[in-house]
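Structure tokens please, single chain.
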Amino acid sequence: VPYRIADLLKQIDERMGLLESKNDRPTLKSLRTRIESAASDPRYRFMFNSRLIEDTIHETIGNIFRVPNHGRPVTCFEMAGMPSEVVNSVCSVLARLAFDLALWSEGRLRLLLLCEEAHRYMPADPRLGFAPTRHALSRIAKEGRKYGCYLGVVTQRPGELDPTILSQCSTFFAMRLANEQDQAIIRSAIADSSASTLAFLSSMGQREAIAFGEGVATTMRLKFEKLSQEFIPGTAKREQALPADSGDDVD
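Here you go.
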């Protein structure tokens, strides 16, 4: 249900004015201050600047999750240049939306949420990271499979990941890992009969991986196909930014 932040602030003011809400007044006052500071933050201008409600939740969710997909079933969110507070909030909301959408579609919609640089969102240390994001992602990892919502986790440092989420991963693709702590985590997840395969883990080449778990019939060493340059995300932008190679530029 769409609503305006101004209406919410008005309701908080009315509540603060009531005689019986004497004990709640400091909490309400602090809540009002937080909402006002978020609404006046220039980074959130895209959300609070408009005085009218121009879009509906159906359109927004349809755009995010490609329903219907029209032959383009993948949505990529590029959040590299955004402040960490905004990235955490966006990631938390996306994870909750994905879980709820899969839950209420009753199995008709199957979603895979792939989380790149996952150690930022769900670090091993519970004091680090953003708690709502951690809870939303761990909920998908623990309960999502039975509703058709799956979690993919991509990281260079599995040793820095939350062990709870790591224990829920059923299929692993292990690429080159030099760190002993990271290798130990992969070793603990693989079956004893296939442990000798991990001897190659620190010396594998580019695009090579060791795959094991539910998704593959047996533990195997594989090599990913080399993608054409035009299919790699962001290459078009980089090519435009790079100067033409005339031989005059300074090395």
